[in-house]
Amino acid sequence: MNSELRPAIGISCRFNWETSYYNLRIGYPDAILASGGTPILLPLLPNREYIDSVVEKLDGLCLSGSDSDVDPLRYGREPILDCGINVPRRDETDLMLLEAAEKRGLPVLCICFGIQVLNVYRGGTLIQDIPSQTKDPIRHRQGDIQERHQHSISITEDSLLARLAGGTRAAVNSHHHQAVENVGRDLVPVAWAPDGVIEAVENTRSGQFILGVQWHPEIGWQNDSLSRAIFDHFIGVARERMFAQLEGRTTARV
């Protein structure tokens, strides 16, 4: 594909607090490239001048997963014993990226930690630890065999996600111990695990595409139709916005 037709997609990096290194699973840039985007890895620099300057050059934003948990103090809770480590520069950078993307109407795909920080950004709260805070939980951390489907999800019939999945049932991988609790402003839950844990949210505000998923479509996307459909749609929306900007228009598909 002609590089001039590829929308620029920023991906927030992960941060290893033990080594002070950034890292990112290769599936994120690989899937974005395969769907027609140009992946751009974003270091975790919670500086507004930097954030504004880099987001100005993007056509879309992907918030990646993380080994850390969003700091509960950011949503008005005290940390429980089973809450994981908090990385301030990850929280702060992602929150700033969401704010800058919202101002510009950038399409946003939020994955795992990404859906959680999106929910906090919109004023929602999180389940800090599914095993200890939910009734009759299923297993949401599947271990080393990352590509296999861990559990099923039920999807709202009239949602975008249902259209991408081709129905109201799907199977997904699972690598998390936190999840959306009280849903944030102008977000609507559209998928649930068998134990009731929210697995996906969509934006209800007009003018900006936002999809948050609790699983990892960047893992095994080559052989999973829903994962590929998610990235294809996301990049398609970003491309339409890019063309709209080039033509001086302000609206694009959401």
Architecture overview:
- The protein has helices at 27-34, 48-55, 88-104, 113-121, 130-133, 160-165, 225-246; strands spanning 8-12, 14-16, 21-23, 38-42, 60-63, 108-111, 126-127, 151-155, 169-172, 179-180, 187-192, 198-203, 210-213.
- It has 254 residues and is an alpha/beta fold.
- It has one domain (3-246): Rossmann fold (3-Layer(aba) Sandwich).
- The strands form 3 sheets. A 9-stranded mixed beta sheet has the order 4-1-5-6-13-12-11-8-9, with helices on both faces. A two-stranded antiparallel ribbon has the order 2-3. The protein has a two-stranded antiparallel ribbon with strand order 7-10.
- Strand 11 (187-192) and strand 12 form a beta hairpin.
- Helix 3 (88-104) crosses helix 4.
- It is globular.
CATH class: Alpha Beta
Distance between the termini: 23 Å
Return Rg in Å: 17 Å
Domain count: the total is: 1
Low-confidence segments, ≥5 residues, pLDDT <50? none
Percent of sequence in beta strands: 15-25%
Q: With helices defined by DSSP (H or I, 4 residues minimum), what is the helix count?
A: 7
Topology:
Blueprint: E1 8-12, E2 14-16, E3 21-23, H1 27-34, E4 38-42, H2 48-55, E5 60-63, H3 88-104, E6 108-111, H4 113-121, E7 126-127, H5 130-133, E8 151-155, H6 160-165, E9 169-172, E10 179-180, E11 187-192, E12 198-203, E13 210-213, H7 225-246
Parallel strand pairs: 1-4, 1-5, 5-6, 6-13
Antiparallel strand pairs: 2-3, 7-10, 8-9, 8-11, 11-12, 12-13
